[in-house]
Write a structure and sequence with these properties.
Length: 299
């Protein structure tokens, strides 16, 4: 028996927003893969809850009229991984969510819940950073949209205010058209484990595939929140495609990190792995974009 002060189950997004306005202290329950475990352990007892389980409109993954990809926050990891839209335009996001938990967790866990938890290890978070995603937040009074980097405030804290609900994860056409990406996660086990560190990259090459026109490098568990690595990106932007350029960018990206010692890994080990998986992701992104990395790295 869960210790609930009240459980509200709206039938529409509008009803959910009304309930959140009327009960500003209420907590939101999406898939429940995290919150139900905490409730069972007695960590979230005596609270009001608004369950989003019945809001199928927030499970859709669609293309808007301007070709913006709109991912509903209630889309499960399995839905995201199987979506033709995601697989065709954001394939590294499909790959990233398939590293989360096991099949049962991926079936009920939601991408919106994964992002709203605010944890730096979230596999979907660094990948959404690499695709330059935006977060759509709604209230009973209106809608605001903010870059995902602004959505993350600190470890475990996101910019979601009382009465607000995430209603969409958006990726604009300019953020994905012509871009190719990759994701890599390092964990102590190959399955059912959170990331010790993770990295997601996207690149856009010139028409002749010889130059990196632009690049994005995003890390998880490299700072209190997921982050982009502007030093690493700048080191690769405008450079001829080569393994030496990739290696230099991966090394430069470490200047943007704030890894720390913990029981999971030492800071020095995290930095070593961040540079290595950045190198692997950038290499794979360039190959997927049609580039040829023929120059060998210095020994």
């Amino acid at each position: 028996m869960f210790d609930l002060k009240a459980l509200y189950i709206p039938d529409t997004v509008e009803e959910a927003l009304t309930l959140l306005a009327e009960h500003p202290d209420a907590h939101i329950m999406a898939g429940g893969s995290d919150t139900l475990v905490k409730l069972r352990d007695g960590k979230l007892g005596g609270l009001e809850w608004v369950s989003l389980h019945g809001l199928d409109e927030l499970r859709r993954i669609t293309l808007d009229d301007d070709d913006t990809i709109r991912i509903g926050p209630l889309a499960s990891f399995t839905q995201v991984a199987r979506s033709a839209i995601v697989r065709g335009r954001l394939p590294s996001l499909a790959e990233a969510v398939l590293t989360i938990g096991g099949p049962q967790v991926r079936k009920i866990g939601t991408i919106g819940g994964n992002l709203c938890n605010g944890v730096p290890s979230a596999d979907s978070a660094s990948t959404c950073f690499a695709w330059d995603a935006e977060i759509e937040v709604s209230t009973a009074d209106g809608v605001r949209t903010l870059p995902i980097a602004d959505f993350y405030l600190s470890a475990g804290k996101v910019d979601l205010r009382p009465g607000e609900l995430v209603t969409g994860i958006l990726v604009r056409r300019a953020a994905y058209q012509g871009w190719h990406g990759a994701y890599h996660k390092y964990a102590m086990r190959n399955a059912m484990d959170i990331a010790t560190v993770n990295c997601s990259t996207t690149v856009r090459l010139s028409a002749d595939r010889s130059t990196v026109e632009d690049a994005r490098i995003a890390f998880g568990v490299a700072a209190p929140t997921p982050i982009r690595a502007p030093h690493g990106e700048a080191a690769l932007r405008g450079r001829p495609v080569s393994q030496a350029a990739v290696d230099a960018a991966a090394k430069a990206a470490i200047a943007d990190t704030r890894a720390r010692d913990s029981w999971r890994a030492a800071k020095a080990f995290r930095e070593h792995m961040l540079a290595e998986i950045a190198r692997r992701c950038l290499t794979q992104s360039i190959v997927r974009a049609g580039g040829r990395l023929t120059e060998k790295s210095p020994a």
